[in-house]
Write a structure and sequence with these properties.
The structure holds 3 protein chains of 3 kinds. Chain A is 36% helix and 15% strand. Chain A is of the alpha/beta class. Chain A has an 8-stranded mixed β-sheet with strand order 2-1-3-4-8-7-9-10, with helices on both faces. A two-stranded antiparallel sheet of chain A has the order 5-6. In chain A, helix 3 runs parallel beside helix 5. The longest helix of chain A is centred in the C-terminal third of the chain and has 18 residues. The relative contact order of chain A is 0.12. Chain B is built from 12 helices and 16 strands. Chain B folds into 2 domains: 243 residues, Thiamin diphosphate (ThDP)-binding fold, Pyr/PP domains (Rossmann fold); 134 residues, Rossmann fold, CATH 3.40.50.920. The longest helix of chain C is centred in the middle third of the chain and has 5 residues. By secondary structure, chain C is α+β, with helices and mostly antiparallel strands. Chain C has one domain: 2-Layer Sandwich (Alpha-Beta Plaits), CATH 3.30.70. Chain C contains 2 helices and 5 strands. The chains are: A alpha/beta, B alpha/beta, C alpha+beta. The interface between A and C is large, with 52 and 49 residues. Strand 2 of chain A pairs parallel with strand 9 of chain B.
Chain lengths: 304, 391, 92
């Protein structure tokens, strides 16, 4: 190997809470998000994790990428397990030992684990929940989830001769979380990593259940150049398709304003999962429908 | 001190005596009185446990999983549909080697929906890696609860333990119960101190992915651990007897089996009725005995063989069925005699499904039937008019 | 089933050491590699932030990727605001 760049090895100046050697694909937005979350959260964390890419790539025996005490149980229960961790810390007089962070992908969060999540939010556990939203079941091969966006092509809701892909839009998970009356809900994007880390830090100062949903591109599932992970995430925000906001006690308290609004085509054309919309005849009308979703978001969240 | 209390209260008091840090449960008939009693104890400040009221049994099992992994003693209770909803978590708990405990108020499985007792629920999760104990009466259900944590938390075992008690028949029965003295309970069951748990002081990763080159060994170790629990279960019962003065646990319980020609085999509350039948048979000169299976998993093959090796006729009465096979206990029991010199006649009956009463006479009739022929998987007391048979 | 040599049935293989994935080198996955030119670097540290594997280190305008792990995704080069990182084909 030509090691011109690594000969001046020094001690890493940033001690990451998620170690390298994990098996995420090159350019993985989810692992980038997880590293940003955990580094923002710092050392005193106990983490739970749903089954999915995040777990599979990070905890293959006999190695683990996680530096903090970490547990994976099942696909649908990182929140219920976190509830048990929290109850145990309380009962054992250890509640000041750690912040508890429960993590899941969009499938765990919006689909199979929504019952457990709702229970944890309703019971008021002092847990930060992080949804890494890469908009499909990536671990099993890019199948549609409740957070797959309108007319994205996935392997179980593919575009076809008589289909444009998914027929419904993203389940409004941040609003569903907020409707539980929890103190803090935020959306974030790996495209805006400083904002993401600020929100994690802020969430951990608040007692009670917190919900952060992070938009993280998946180069494999979205079919884009791995180098463009950050770009794709940023363009999603700049079109209005992914609104970035904070809700405190049910009220929107901040939004990331769009400085220069971009048409949704700018986002769609970066990704293979939307290619059918730009290629097939009649696609223009579908793109208009996606533009309407972005425009509604802009209006609803006052993004401009 | 004996006091007449409901079975559910006896169990709740036993759970209290175990000083669990975390309790999590979801209400389901006929388990409700157990959770209600525990909730009241917490509400009155008599029981210092975190009680997590969850939105499903699936979460209840997940909560005790998380609590146990964090170093807490954790308890749940459920039955039937609730147990089935927990199933995925139950297997996970065993795989993670977490010594939680659960009372299953045994009940039939839907469809058709039926809230009354049989053992189909717990039998369904027999392969999960949980140790399964079956109580005959409320006293046993209470005593076994203490033993459950004692067995499961043994550092060599580290497995979850399910105490089975018949729904309604025991959970709602009022019986004179010897209450567990807290001091004695504390002596019997010291605080839970796991070697590894989730803590920032010594971080570990739990719940790893095991690829084909690692998975089989982890299941092998699980099998070795549950097999190794057999002497631990016996010791837990002996230790219990030393402190509390009664033996109410162990692997099997033998009744009048010395010199018996016929042996009845059963689990749970029906054993009481079967004992009456055995007494009656003996009074008529029919040498018979009874084997009560107290520990169903690990399956006490050696103890069962040892108890039954000299009898000519074995009759298994079970409140469960493996659809498409027949009696589960029957078939497992038969396998014990595979290749043995003496081959007793082994018959089996399916009894009491969905809470159907089991009169003494029905058992007597069944025993009479197998005097001349081997019968397998016959349902006792079927109403022929409902199945289009007979007439 | 073979008899176990060790008689202990204590839980084993249930947990693993934190951060031990460092033993698993992912550098061989790489088809492209980042070249840190150390020319126009303005110390913004964006490359450090955006590396999904967290393997870009350095200070004082001298940054480098740990090639034992770098998967060559190219996010660092794409995001470098002064274009001080190039991606080159890996030659092995």
């Amino acid at each position: 190997m030509n090691e011109t760049t690594s000969t001046k090895k020094k001690e890493p100046i940033e001690e990451s809470q998620v170690a390298p050697g994990h098996r995420a694909c090159a350019g993985c937005g989810e692992l980038l998000a997880a590293r940003l979350v955990m580094n923002a959260a710092g050392k005193n964390v106990i983490a739970t994790c749903a089954t999915g890419c995040l777990e599979v790539v990070s905890s293959a025996y006999p190695q683990s990428a996680w530096k903090m005490p970490w547990i994976h149980s099942l696909f649908e229960n990182p929140t219920a397990v976190a509830s048990g961790v929290e109850a145990a810390l309380k009962a054992l007089g250890r509640e000041n030992e750690a912040n508890i962070i429960a993590q899941g992908g969009d499938g765990s969060t919006a689909d199979i684990g929504i019952g457990c999540l709702s229970g944890m939010l309703e019971r008021g556990h002092n847990v930060l929940y992080v949804c890494y939203d890469n908009e499909a079941y990536m671990n099993t091969g890019v199948q549609r989830s409740g957070l797959t966006p309108f007319e994205a092509s996935t392997t179980t809701a593919p575009s076809g001769k008589i289909s444009w892909g998914k027929t419904t839009d993203k389940k409004p998970m941040p609003e569903i979380a907020a409707a539980h009356g929890i103190p803090y809900v935020a959306t974030a994007s790996v495209g805006y990593y400083a904002d993401l880390q600020k929100k994690v830090k802020k969430a951990l100062t608040i007692k009670g259940p917190k919900y952060i949903q992070i938009h993280c591109p998946c180069p494999l599932g979205w079919i884009h150049d791995p180098a463009l992970t950050i770009k794709v995430a940023q363009v999603a925000v700049q079109t209005g398709l992914i609104p970035i906001f904070e809700m405190e006690n049910g009220v929107i308290t901040s939004v990331r304003k769009i400085v220069k609004k971009r048409p949704v085509e700018d986002y769609l054309k970066l990704q293979g999962r939307f290619r059918h919309l730009l290629k097939k005849s009649g696609g223009e009308d579908e793109v208009k429908r996606i533009q309407a979703i972005a425009d509604q978001n802009i209006e609803k969240y006052h993004l401009i | 001190m004996k006091k007449v209390i409901e079975g559910s209260m006896a169990v709740a008091l036993a759970v209290k005596a175990c000083r669990p840090h975390v309790i999590s449960a979801y209400p389901i008939t006929p388990q409700t009185h157990i959770v209600e009693n525990l909730s009241q104890m917490v509400a009155d400040g008599e029981l210092k446990s975190e009680f997590v009221n969850v939105e499903s049994e699936f979460s209840a099992a997940s909560v005790i999983l998380g609590a146990s992994a964090t170093g807490a003693r954790a308890y749940s209770t459920t039955t039937a549909q609730g147990l089935l909803l927990m199933t995925e978590v139950l297997f996970n708990i065993a795989g993670l080697r977490l010594p939680v405990s659960l009372t299953c108020a045994n009940r039939a499985i839907s469809a058709p929906i039926n809230i009354w007792c049989d053992h189909q629920d717990a039998m369904t999760v027999r392969d999960s890696g949980w140790i399964q104990l079956y109580a005959e009466d409320c006293q046993e259900a209470a005593d076994m609860q203490l033993q459950a944590f004692k067995i499961g938390e043994n550092p060599e075992i580290m497995l979850p333990v399910m105490v089975n008690m018949d729904g309604f028949i025991l959970t709602h029965a009022f019986e004179p119960i010897e209450l567990l003295d807290q001091k004695m309970a504390d002596e019997y069951l010291p605080p839970y101190k796991p070697e590894i748990f989730l803590t920032t002081k010594n971080p570990v990763t739990f719940g790893i992915l095991a690829e084909p080159q690692y998975y089989a060994e982890s299941r092998y170790r699980l099998e070795e651990a549950i097999k190794a629990s057999k002497p631990v279960i016996e010791e837990a019962a002996s230790e219990f007897k030393r402190i509390f003065g009664r033996y109410s646990g162990g692997l099997v319980d033998k009744y009048k089996l010395d010199g018996a020609k016929t042996a009845l085999v059963g689990m749970g509350s029906v054993v009481g009725t079967m004992r009456e039948v055995v007494d009656e048979m003996n009074s008529h000169g029919q040498k018979s005995g009874l084997l009560k299976i107290r520990t169903y998993r690990p399956f006490p093959k050696e103890a069962i063989y040892d108890a039954l090796k000299d009898v000519d006729n074995i009759i298994v009465m079970e409140k469960a069925i493996s659809l498409g096979l027949g009696g589960i206990l029957l078939n497992e029991l038969k396998s014990i005699f595979q290749g043995k010199k003496k081959q007793p006649r082994i018959s089996g009956f399916i009894i009491g499904l969905g809470g159907r009463d089991i009169p003494t006479q029905s058992i007597i009739n069944a025993v009479k039937k197998v005097e001349s022929e081997t019968i397998e998987d016959e349902f006792i007391d079927l109403r022929t008019e409902l199945i289009g048979a007979g007439k | 089933m073979p008899k176990t040599q060790t008689k202990s049935t204590k839980p084993e293989g249930i947990t693993v050491k934190p951060g031990s994935s460092k033993e698993y080198k992912t550098g061989s996955w790489r088809s492209k590699k980042p070249i840190f030119k150390h020319d126009k670097c303005n110390d913004c540290r964006i490359c450090v932030m955006v590396c999904p594997d967290g393997v870009i280190f350095g200070e004082d305008k001298k940054y480098w990727a740990d090639m034992d792990f770098c998967k060559g995704c190219g996010i660092c080069a794409e995001e470098c605001p002064v274009k001080d990182i190039d991606m080159e084909l890996e030659v092995r």
